[in-house]
Amino acid sequence: MGGPELHDIFVIGGGINGCGIARDAVGRGYSVYLAEMDDLASGTSSFSTKLIHGGLRYLEHYEFRLVREALMEREVLWKNAPHIIWPMRFVLPHAEGLRPAWLLRLGLFLYDHIGGRKLLPATRTLDMRSDPAGKPLKPMFKRAFEYSDGWVNDARLVILNARDAADRGATIRTRTEVTAARRENGHWVVTTENLQTGTVDEIKARLIVNAAGPWVDHVLAEAVGQNVHNVRLVQGSHIVVRKKFDDPRAYFFQNRDGRIIFAIPYEDDFTLIGTTDQDYDGDPRTAKISQAEINYLCDAASEYFAEPVKPEHIVWTYSGVRPLYDDGASKAQEATRDYVLKSDGRNGEAPVVNIFGGKITTYRRLAESMIEIIEKHLGRKGAPWTASAALPGGEFEATAFDTEVAKLKSAYPFLDMRLARRLTRLYGTRAKVLLGLAKSEADLGRNFGADLYEAEVRYLVDNEWAVSADDVLWRRTKRGLKLGKDQAAALEEFLQGIRPGMHNAAAE
Predict the structure, then answer these.
(1) How many Cβ atoms from other residues are within 10 Å of residue 470's Cβ?
(2) Mean pLDDT over residues 206-211, rounded?
């Protein structure tokens, strides 16, 4: 059993919102217990377009508050996690017959000036006939606008929030499903089941945060007994192809149907293209790209690239279901990306606070808004603190990433530069914890392929809740793009061999 301890907050869901709230709350002095039914970031949070951005297209829907908040967060998050977040320039070609140039200029003027931009460079106009950004595109695109946003390793952002929450005293339990919750003597009694061991626990908490993402309504119905409809499920799919261009900049393409897609440099050797927007009905865990979505993304990208993007070029796809607040919008792409927090619990009843919607860029602000609601129910403890607090591994200057790589290479001369850079990108200053006392490549243990060594795998198991090959290959390292099926199977076999010891420091 979970024991007699009464926690302040029980968080349901180990995505970006759940982990961000757990981190903020425990850092202020609340006791926190978080349960995730699968792996951290296994749902919506690892299926994003990987952008820390204001959302230029949201200006068309007059979502000025959301855009301003998101723009202000870009540099805050970059400073807090410069290993997994970095600036990226985006090239927006002007296409005849679509949005006029004056409208693009106006939107980008607002983008440059309403979000407190300090470090990110401003918008500029490009002559695509002479700028290298024009080289991979069709010659019809003669002018473009280049602006700033940010890139994020989304799944690692979730895991680092969870790691920091655990380091500060939160209990984080993965593969743990909430099966029931009842109010009793002014608090909640939450029943959980560990899906690996079958262990059933009861945990007491003064307040529940329902951060279950696409399952938020399901949790309310199954665990709490409230049959409600608050979210609109929208599927977004992406394709990954071999690198289409060498330029470090990304592209923002307008489509004839009014929607947009991005084409983004990805994991050194690839280009990420997405996203789609279509309503989804079904289990979010089974979301899969459709042939129509594949055709849409290939056709849309081929309108711009001189060399067409074809389905046979695709090396990987992923699809996620976004739990948007159902505001009655007629089209999926018009539904608000803003978040809505709703509290339930009157007359002294133990409260549950539900999260609907939201985007990865504003997760930290959402957490602060959630704490304001929690304070009304449980009383105030600490002050806001996350705006200036580095995430694990991010304890270096935002503009000093290359210096950090050089430091790691100097400390471990046997690393080749590409591996030193990859480890710094994933783990920042904690790469030295991973490498430990290693003096040679042999000290890193078995190589599973693509420079994924046993030392890294064991670090992920011991510190980051990794259990399966998918956890390691797709959410924590993206080495799945480089490893073959046999190599992935060998990794899974290795993990199964060390699984008996997996209730480790990461879970505490």
Answers:
(1) 17
(2) 97
CB atoms within 10 A of CB 344: 16
Q: Strand 85-93 vs strand 143-152: parallel, antiparallel, or unpaired?
A: antiparallel
Give the predicted TM-score (pTM) of the model: 0.95
Residue 154 has pLDDT above 50, yes or no: yes
Secondary structure of 125-175 in the HEC alphabet? EEECCCCHHHCCECCCCCEEEEEEEEEECHHHHHHHHHHHHHHCCCEEECC
51 forms beta bridges with: 151
Q: Where are the alpha helices (H) located in 53-128, listed in sequence order?
A: 64-80, 101-113
Q: Is 236 helix (H, G, I), strand (E, B) or coil?
A: strand
Nearest to 213 by CA among 61, 46, 327: 46
Q: Percentage of the chain surpassing pLDDT 90?
A: 78
Length of the chain: 508
Written as six digits, the tokens of 224 are 């709490």
Average pLDDT over residues 394-418: 97
What residues have CB less than 8 Å from 497, skipping those under 6 apart?
none
Q: Which segments of 286-359 does DSSP mark as H helices, in order? A: 291-302
Q: Half-sphere exposure of 270 toward its Cβ, with a 13 Å CA cutoff?
A: 18
Helix (H) or strand (E) segment spanning residue 343: strand 339-344
Dihedral over alpha carbons 447, 453, 455, 457 (to 10 degrees): -110
Q: Which residues of 126-156 are buried (b: 16+ CB within 10 A; e: fewer)?
A: bebeebebbebbeeebebbbbbbbbbbbbbb
DSSP annotation of 43 reads S
Residue 313 corresponds to which tokens in the numbers above? Answer: 């070029």
Do 41 and 14 contact (CB within 8 A), yes or no?
yes
What's the mean per-residue pLDDT of the chain?
92
* pLDDT, tens digit, 9 for 90 and up, residues 432-476: 999 999 999 999 999 999 999 999 999 999 999 999 999 999 999
- Local structure of 214: helix, strand or coil: helix
The helix/strand/coil state of 36 is coil
Pairing between β-strand 171-173 and β-strand 143-152 as defined by DSSP bridges: unpaired
User: What is the per-residue pLDDT across 330-387, written as a single tens digit (0 to 9) for each?
Assistant: 666 666 667 889 888 777 789 999 999 888 999 999 999 999 999 999 999 999 999 9
Determine contact, residues 448/492, Cβ cutoff 8 Å: no
What is the helix (H) or strand (E) element at residue 498, kind and residue range? Answer: helix 485-498
**Is residue 238 within 8 Å of residue 274, measured between CB atoms?**
yes
Phi, psi dihedral angles at 100 (to 5 degrees)? -65, 155
| Peptide bond before residue 192 is cis, with ω within 30 degrees of 0 | no
Q: Residue range 65-87: average pLDDT? A: 94
d(CA 330, CA 327): 9
